[in-house]
Design a protein that fits this description.
It holds the Pfam family LpxK. Its EC number is 2.7.1.130. This is tetraacyldisaccharide 4'-kinase. It is a single chain. The chain has 11 helices and 12 strands. With 397 residues, the protein is of the alpha/beta class. Helix 6 packs across helix 11. It is globular and about 70 Å long. The termini are far apart. Strands 1, 2, 3, 4, 5, 6, 7, 8, 9, 10, 11 and 12 form a 12-stranded mixed sheet that branches.
Amino acid sequence: MENLRRLVGEIAQTRRQDLPKLSPLQRSFIPLLSFSSIIYGFALFVRHQLYYFGFFHRHRLPVPVISVGNLTWGGNGKTPMVEFIAHWFIKSGVSPLILTRGYAGGDEAKMLQRHLIGTPAKIGVGANRIAIAACFFGRYGYLDSRSRKECFDRLHTDLNVEMRSNTDKIGAVILDDGLQHWRLHRDLEILMVNGMMPWGNGQLLPLGPLREPLSALSRADVAVIHNAEMVPSRELKDIELMIREVKKNLPIFLTKLAPSYFFEVKNYCSKLPLTVVSHMAVFCVSAIGFASAFVQEIEKMGPLYVDRLGFSDHHWFQYKDIVMMKQRLRKLQDEFGAMPIVVVTEKDYDRDPLILRLMDPYKVLVLCCQLQIVPSGGHTEKCFNKLLKQFMEVNFS
């Protein structure tokens, strides 16, 4: 199954003009995948029409909702953006509720829980996000329009003072992976785009990586191009032009994941500097949507050599995977005459931290990163925060 996922993933990320260069086995799958994409596209169209003509209704929550979503699978920076916005709300004195589906074991939800521990942020996990939200509102309560206005007035009085929430009541909802979750009304739609592979081959699932046609860009209020520091400026301009062809005046921001430190799998409280991998043989292991950005960040840290092993997104490491990794590590050790270091992402750690301890005697480090907004054309972090403040002005006052 893992090999099949990898095979289909390679087809989806191959540009249309390069499809003839694929292996005969991969090309043999294209007719079946094309037919499946047509069926998927038709189902999307029918679903959209049912909402458009009122057969299906959107549920409105009693507090403002920000949706963070994407058009393609993996590597879009969606979850780091959710965390970024959650911290902004917390600093503004608002307790946010994050609603996430918890796909494939909930590795992203676990990462959010670890990062936001000790804050007033709440995290609801489950496919039925309306029911999950109702449970949290029943347990903690929520700020009504009058309370939200008082909250905004306090913030507006002194913008230099970092507000602290004095209530557990929920003031806003952040919908993780919300673009395709049409059941919930949202007040602000943020769409994330992977700058290193924005649209893949431009086809719908499963032939391509698109979860919706590019016309869905028109529903966005803000577009964010992620991994921007790894993309040539000319390609960034092309992505921006393509976005503006769909929605001319859409605000576009650039972001990146900035590495901050490592921690050891056996001690998540440890903090090791990024220089710990300098002049070392490093083995990058990941099961995320777009591993190339992760590997490139490690390469920037000055290791002696970087080997990599990638699995499909959300893959659960098995004992046989550990055996295969150790075989690769022994080869690296023989080649370089020293113990190599294994590096994984936080999502890989949070999926199953215990199995990674079976890598002994090799040290396993987890790379921790934070989302940063890359200044571009006047669109800075200050501008993004101003956009969020305007969102509060409209929905809190």
